[in-house]
Amino acid sequence: QFDLDIQEIIGNEKDCGIVIYEYDRIIKGEENLDKVKLRLYSNKLETNILERMEIGKLEDLKEVKVDEIDIQDYCGAVISIKYKSIKKAASNEGNDWSIIAKLVSIPIDNKIYIIWGSEEKFQILMDMIVKIG
């Protein structure tokens, strides 16, 4: 069972991760399968953030959204948040939306790698996984 509290994307020490789905057949080229897995995971992350907002754990947040994008040749997504008010300590000063995480689904042979991370960590992890393929 996947525990979002352990793998959460909010927090300095938890800003990247990977989930690996393994199949008993070659799945590379089955575009719908990697899109479905990406949506499943991005929806879990979005739901987790929304639930935390509802119970008051993320008081400074106003909205969260997930946008599907292409990242290189793969299905990807970005999770963005909007703050209720801009604080001096916030790195997004002057912007409406701040990207807090990027996600990508990379099919290689019989596995789908779902990678997520802050903008700083995401590309490092993605480059490592792409080298596998």
Describe this structure in words.
With 133 residues, this protein is an alpha+beta fold. It has one domain (19-132). 32% of the residues lie in helices and 35% in strands. It has helices at 4-7, 31-54, 119-132; strands spanning 16-22, 61-71, 74-83, 98-108, 111-117. A five-stranded antiparallel beta sheet has the order 1-5-4-3-2, sandwiched between helices. The protein is elongated and about 45 Å long. The two termini are 27 Å apart.
Topology:
Layout lengths: L3 H4 L8 E7 L8 H24 L6 E11 L2 E10 L14 E11 L2 E7 L1 H14 L1
Antiparallel strand pairs: 1-5, 2-3, 3-4, 4-5
Quick rundown:
The chain has about 130 residues and is α+β, with helices and mostly antiparallel strands. It has helices spanning about 5, 30-55, 120-130; strands spanning about 15-20, 60-70, 75-85, 100-110, 110-115.
